[in-house]
Amino acid sequence: MDTIEPEVKAEVREEISPDLTGPEAVARLNRDMQRNSLTPLWQIETNLMSRQPRTQTLPWLWKWSTLYDIAERAGALVPIERGGDRRAIALSNPGLEGRPFATPTLWTAVQWLNGHEVAPAHRHTAQAIRFIIEGNGSWRTGGGDRGFLERGGLVLTPPWLWHDHGSKSDERAIWLDGLDIPLNNYLDASFFEPYKGEAQAVTQALNGTVLKYGVGQMRPAWEKRSVEYSPIFTYKWTDTERALDNLAQVASSPYDDIALEYTNPHTGGPVMPAFSAWIQMLRPGIHTQAHRQVGSSVYHVFEGSGETIINGVSFRWEKGDFFVVPSWAWHEHHNLGGNERAILFSLHDTPLLLALNKYREESYQLNNGHQEITGTFQPV
Ligand code: GTQ
Ligand code: FE2
Fold it and tell me: Ligand 1, closest atom to CA 124?
């Protein structure tokens, strides 16, 4: 069979025209494919399906001093108005062609709210969290539930929930915003609606969801389970810190030391379908082993100082800094703060990869799990 078919074909081609098999014919074929919006796999396969993830996302770090300075100036110069709705400044990964995204799936911004300001109510299908860096006297109303914001609090804004932010104090508030905007837009799933007034009415007791669900082990017996997102709209720092200290007494991860994922108490799963939030403590002197996984992450240094070595490059960090670990990049954390603990808050798109059966991870086998350091990141 193998020998007969090609011969027959060659004969037939010659009879019709030599043109049909030559380089000109191939050029014409390519041209016709292009003209007809068609692309041959054989010319693009190695890029299309790389042997391993080949992300454009760069490991990167933003200094707190820079972020704060810029946010403060925006606070003085730029009013919060309808249309923009928020004074949020997005980490824009230099590998992502100027798009305002920290990673291919995660929007991460620093939001600044002046004392006595209100950021008007709206809702959107993008799902959001805030991690409060400083918040004295500021509040968030979500679905009629108003809660005051405190340093270290994690605040959830599930999809399509009305939310507005405001302040009762003379002090500014500043926090980390995390949303799945890049994914939401990639999926052509964005809906957005401004609220008819400024701030929505508060319809529940102050801090209602914290009082209802905040212990996290029990829920009002008459309420249905929410499986899509956590009903706890605020995870308070005092609870988070206690959980870290408790875990440190009994267990740790060689890669992440004392790491906790904030969970939806109804499912044990992540707080949002599209991303999960972590808090982690690197105890004094800890230098974790390197590993890598599919999916991208954004970190915020809540406390302490140290370095994260990403693909052999040392990213030195201190309190307030933000950094990105791209998909499949080796990374290990190192607390360099003497006797001080370091605390990292982070967002990961792992739930997407797990849900779609695309998750992989690998630990670094050489040199006791430590990468060779080949460079040091120089922040701008
Ligand atoms: O605070 O509601 O960083 O809607 C981006 C979009 C914050 C918010 C962002 C938003 C918000
Ligand atoms: Fe929003």
Answer: 4
**C-alpha 149 – ligand 2 centre gap (Å):** 16
- Reported as a single tens digit per residue, the pLDDT across 144-196 is 999 999 999 999 999 999 999 999 999 999 999 999 999 999 999 999 999 99
The CB of 125 under 6 Å from ligand 1? The reply is: no
* Cα–Cα distances in angstroms (integers) from residue 201 to residues 81, 123, 145, 168, 205, in the given order: 19, 14, 9, 16, 12
Residue 86 Cβ inside 6 Å of ligand 1? The answer reads yes
pTM, full prediction? 0.93
Q: Could you report the per-residue pLDDT of 210-239, keeping only the tens digit for each? A: 888 877 778 888 988 877 778 888 999 999
